[in-house]
Amino acid sequence: MQPNFEDQRLVPILEKVVAGTRLSFDDGLSLYRSQDLLAIGYMANIVRERLHGSRTYFNVNRHINPTDVCVASCRLCAFGKKARDPKAYTMSLEQVWETAGRGYSEAATEFHIVGGLHPELTVDWFCQMLRGLKERFPQVHLKAFTMVEISFLAQRAKLSIRETLQRLKDAGMDSMPGGGAEIFSERVRRIICDHKIDGDEWLNVAREAHGIGLKSNCTMLYGHIENDEDRVDHLVRLRSLQDDTNGLVTFIPLAFHPDNTALAHLDKTTGFMDLKNIAISRLMLDNIPHIKAYWIMMTPRIAQIAQRFGANDIDGTVVEEKIYRDAGSESGQSLRRAELLRLIRESGREPFERDTLYRPVERTETHFTVLV
Ligand code: V47
């Protein structure tokens, strides 16, 4: 059946989508330049259902941010603080371990651990942190450190990226989250995060991580000063990395939240833009298995609709979230498992509890088993 697209310029892209042909840079631009969201979503849903049927994945996880002290001063960020700031915090190792156990009675399968670039915390400190978590929570997957944190730790310790990753992996790091990628365009990075590693270095650290057998996620921050070309360039660069390494598991488009940042004068993203980014990423990233609609970032309402626009994951219970809260998000910080199930079921999708690497999880309230 030939759907009646309002924007007829998208019909050649539909033909490629149906045939499973890779979309070009120019196709990406045409998608961003079209306002026919229903057509874009329709195509993304074809790919999503081809890959995952009716399943929507979620997990029971907990975020831990050991410190918000950060030597960088990225304009995009409301979370990082200077060490002298009276509101800044840095947990002791005991506090990290204690925080990990706090929250719901439902056993978490994943700790998502990221923080600021602290001038004094060393690779050894983080190795101790990971070992302590593994001792106390041996079953829990540790998804820890962005590419930016790894590069910073390596530089301070005068170790290679590979050696730094290897030490952390040996201490218990199981995989890596996708943060810090922002947008790879140098022109934009100079304005929104000029203290951060550049796009090539982000990709290089990810490549090294995949090279020693670590899987990772990836992200793109949109809705600030980037343009259509910057977004397509970002997606295409992630797609080429994946062609080489196959180490990327999930892509998470992240909507910029301007409150309390140095870019507070910018408008917030709209639901239209959020759904468009979900759908276009599903269409462009033909080699990355999962697209996550992170409910904290896009609200549970939009994350639910996104399950019909290309997303096949909604993230997890989270429990305590600071990065988006500090930037003005009103999504709240936690959802119970039952609430996630309801959101997913109501969108006509079948909830599927996963671990970090998308293996099925069976559970009671307090115990879980990862089925392999
Ligand atoms: O790296 C920071 C972004 C990221 C703001 O891998 C901001 O499963 C919007 O990466 N407005 C952290 N975004 C979040 C992240 C993430 C979240 C959920 C799951 C996974 C995963 C990864 O948030 C940062 C940065 O890119 N960020 N400040 C802001 N004001």
- The helix tally amounts to 14
Number of strands: 12
Radius of gyration: 20 Å
In CATH, the topology is named TIM Barrel
Q: What is the helix/strand order? A: HHHEEHEHEHHEHHEHEHEHEHHEEE
Structural class of the secondary elements? alpha/beta
**Overall pLDDT confidence:** 95
Give the termini separation.
39 Å
Shape type? globular
Q: How many distinct folded domains?
A: 1
Ligand names: ligand V47
Uncertain regions spanning at least 5 consecutive residues: none
Approximate strand percentage: 5-15%
Q: Major sheet, described briefly?
A: 4 strands, parallel
CATH superfamily: Aldolase class I
Spatial order of the strands in the main sheet? Answer: 5-6-7-8
CATH architecture heading: Alpha-Beta Barrel
Task: Work out the helicity level.
Answer: 40-55%
Q: CATH top level?
A: Alpha Beta
